[in-house]
Each structure stands twice: as structure tokens, then as C-alpha cells.
Amino acid sequence: MRVTDNMLHMGLTGNIQKALERLNTNYTRLSTGKMINRPSDDPVGLIMGMRLKKGITEGAQYKENANAALALLNSSDYALDEMTKVLHRLSELAVKGANETNDQISLEAIAQEVEELRNHLYHIANTKQENTYIFAGERTNQPAYTLDNTSDPPSVEWQGSTAPLKAEVGTGIIMEITVTGDRIFGDPANDFFAQLDDFIEHLQNANYDEISNTDLTNIQNRLDEVLKVRGEIGAKVNRIEKNIERMDLMNINFKELLSKIEDTDYAEVTMDLKMQESVYQAALATSARIIQNTLVNYI
Questions:
Q1: In total, how many domains does the chain have?
Q2: Domain check: are 173 and 199 in the same one?
Q3: Omega into 153 within 30° of 0, i.e. cis?
Q4: Domain that holds residue 213
Q5: For the segment 129-156, what is each residue's pLDDT rounded down to a tens digit?
Q6: Same domain, 136 and 242
Q7: Are residues 174 and 277 in the same domain?
Q8: Dist CA 247 CA 60 (whole Å)
Q9: Which of 41, 79, 157, 217 lies deepest, with the highest CB count within 10 Å?
């Protein structure tokens, strides 16, 4: 095949251009710190990187949800711990009030303390975590209970939701992160507040049988339910904490894989750049020796 000067010129120019492109690729990788700067650099790596970034973003959102859930569950447990102390005191007062040796003055004193504890339970029932009423179910922007001042003493009315608040704390993991007030304080038709009103009335009327058989039983039943709920909350907290640990490990793994795909290996790219610079200089020197014709040669 006959090789002309034009063919030599085009071949050498093409090779020099490819060498320049390789140099530019390495310069770009060193300056940006990324191996993939456009889709054509590594289509497969680009897709894998996008999937890893999605996993990292979702993991961060799940972790945020999980931490918010932990805050609500811990707040619920703190409130129920306070309620547990109140119930223990009510139990002591019920045992004391059932003693028929009490005179009316003693029973009135017990009734007054029970009323104060009832009021304290009302405030516990409306505990807030930031702007969330933790026992109001899905109606987090309003108190779980209100006072009806038309009655004497004022009655406590339920206005929360019976549906607990839920959150997705992991891929496909949806958990109930609050406990509704109707479970903590009982059926709104005859909740614990109404039972305490009856207890106060029994004390004022010296109804020892009702105190022994009804009021003491109501208090113990409520204590059993609260302890049961606290056990459930503890199990959920443990599960969420374990899930957060797992998500942290997954996040580290995803970031390491993403770094291997995207980030520049400076030592390797620098060595490749030096080699490409040598190739480029050799191509220029070779072309200078091969193509030496000027316009004078054609006169």
C-alpha cells in the first residue's frame, strides 16, 4: 500500500490527539478528585455509584426517623415512670384508706392527696415532646385530654386519637412509636380519671368496702397495664437502637464502595499521567523527525 505524506500527517496527528485526550482525562481526575466526571468515563460504575448514593440518602432519612422515634419512646417511658410512682402512691393511699380505724378527718386528708395525684396524672397525660403530644395518637397537635369545668370536680375528657403514631425506621420496618392515652388511662367511657373520682367519693363517704374491693383493684390493674406498656417500649427502643447500629455499618460500607468507584487514586493516576506525558513527548519527537517537509520541498 502506498503511504503518502498526508496519510502520515493524519496518522501522527490522530495519535497525538489521543495522547492529549488521555492527558486531559488524568488532569481532570487529579483536579476533581473523581474518577468519573462524565457518563462515558465508566457507565457501569456510574450506575453503581447512583445506587449507592440512593442507599446512603435513604439510610440517612431512616436514621433520622429512628432517632425521632427514640425520642418519642423515651419521653413516653419517662412519663410512664412518673405515672408508675403515682400509682404506687395511690395504692398505698388505698390500703391506708381501707382501714376502718380512720376517722373522717384522715379520710378527707387522703382524698385531698388523691385529688392532687389525679391532677398530676392529667398533666402526665398531656406530656409533650417538642410540639408533639405523645399520648394523643395521630392527633399530635392537640392535648390528649381536656378538663370539662362544667362539672364539680372538673372531669377529664379524652380527645386524642386511638391510632398510634407510626414511623418507617428502616427499609420495610414500620413501627408504632407512641402509645395512645386510651390504653394508658383506660377506656374513655370509664377511664382511670373517672375511677379516681369514684375513689375520692368513696373516701369522703367512708365506703371502705368499695375502697378495698374496687378502688384498690382499679389501681393495681392500671399499674399492671402501665408496666406492660413500659416493657413493650423498652423492647422497641432496643430494636431501634440495634437497627441504627446496623444502618451505621451499612452507611460506612456504602461510602467505602462509593469511594472505590468514584474517588481518584492519586498515586495510580499520577503514575499514569507521567507515563502519558512521556508518550506524548515521544509522539511529538517522532512526528518532528518523520514529517520534515516544508513548502521549500515542493518548489
A1: 2
A2: yes
A3: yes
A4: 52-255
A5: 888 999 999 998 999 999 887 777 778 8
A6: yes
A7: no
A8: 8
A9: 79
pLDDT reading at 93 higher than 70: yes
For residues 133 and 141, is the Cβ–Cβ distance under 8 A? Answer: yes
18 in any annotated domain = no
Q: Are residues 101 and 247 in the same domain?
A: yes
What are the start-end ranges of the H helices in the chain?
5-32, 43-97, 104-125, 181-185, 192-204, 208-210, 216-262, 266-290
pLDDT digits (tens, 9 = 90+) for 172-210: 889 999 999 999 999 988 899 999 999 999 999 999 999
- pLDDT exceeding 70 applies to what percent of the chain? 84
Same domain, 225 and 282: no
Q: Are residues 197 and 272 in the same domain?
A: no
172 and 107 part of one domain: yes
Residues 92 and 231 in one domain: yes
Give Cβ neighbours of residue 99 (< 8 Å, ≥ 6 apart): 208
Specify the higher pLDDT residue, 276 or 87: 87
- Calpha distance 56→186 (Å, rounded): 43
Sequence-ordered list of residues with C-beta below 8 angstroms from that of 149, at least 6 positions apart, any chain: none
Say how far apart CA 127 and CA 142 lie, in whole Å. Answer: 11
